[in-house]
Amino acid sequence: MATNVYFQSGDTSGSTNEQRLVEDLVIESLKIYGHDVYYMPRTLVNRDTIFDEDELSKFTQSYPLEMYMENVEGYDGEGDLFTRFGIEIRDQATFILSKRRWEQMVDREEDSGGTFQLTARPAEGDLLYFPKTKSLFEIKLVEFQNPFYQLGKIYVFRMQCELFEYSSERLDTGDSSIDGIEDAQSLDILQFQFQLEDGDLLRLEDNDSLILESFMTNRGNVGADNADFDTWQSASNILDFTETNPFGEI
User: Fold this and answer.
1) Which is it for strands 127-130 and 35-40: parallel, antiparallel or unpaired?
2) Could you tell me if residue 7 is inside a domain?
3) Residue 150 is part of which domain span?
4) Cα–Cα dist 76/69, whole Å
5) How far is the first Cα of the chain from the last one, in angstroms, to the nearest whole number?
6) 10 Å Cβ neighbour count for 226?
7) Number of CB atoms found within 10 A of residue 213's CB
8) Which of 4, 110, 128, 229 shows the greatest Cβ crowding within 10 Å of its Cβ?
């Protein structure tokens, strides 16, 4: 028994006009109730084919998109955990993005080098920058079949994300609020090379970099109080960890 041709067009359960109407309503709802979030695709530099990972990946682009945060009462996940080595923040969030807006704003065909992970949807491992909390979230799972083919079409991507653990990745998006995360948290010693007045790096005879022997965070940032946190507290005899604690996240 065939489907009714007056209500369905082709193999889909709905006409094209109805699908466009629903999609327009979805986009309008995201613009009204959503947030401005920046999508940052991960660029692969040196992919390890054995472990299927790239420790040298970088982020050089950011796309402003309206997204709806499904967790309206706050972050999901285990929250803030005080462990033996420091505080771990395990916040999670789910962001909903319009598929059409994705196709309009993110054109992956421009990348001729093939460095992007996926071309048809947001990829696991890409980042989202949430300006309201100044946080980076890493996409862990992209669900694109929920809702399941309303009127025969997919309208949104539902992205399950976790708070990103920064590990000296390159952030060169051109947005100072995003790139400043690298300047504040990177442990890359090459950032402390000697530079000449014209900005060129000072090299040794064997072409090695000339690195500052020591770099004090409290001296580099006048307003920082890192030196106070590195010392024992006489009242409680508790040693507070710094921002660069290798075991915790604070």
Assistant:
1) antiparallel
2) no
3) 16-176
4) 11
5) 63
6) 16
7) 6
8) 128
Is residue 225 a part of any domain in this protein?
Answer: no
Rounded distance, CA 72 to CA 146, Å?
19
pLDDT digits (tens, 9 = 90+) for 75-105: 777 777 777 777 777 888 999 999 999 988 8
What is the pLDDT confidence band of residue 32, given thresholds at 50, 70 and 90? very high
Question: Distance (Å, rounded) from C-alpha 161 to C-alpha 137?
Answer: 6
- What is the rounded CA–CA span in Å between residue 137 and residue 230? 29
Instruction: Indicate whether 211 belongs to any domain.
Output: no
How crowded is residue 219: how many other Cβ atoms within 10 Å of its Cβ?
Answer: 11
Instruction: Indicate the number of domains in the chain.
Output: 1
Q: Are 38 and 171 in contact (CB under 8 A)?
A: no
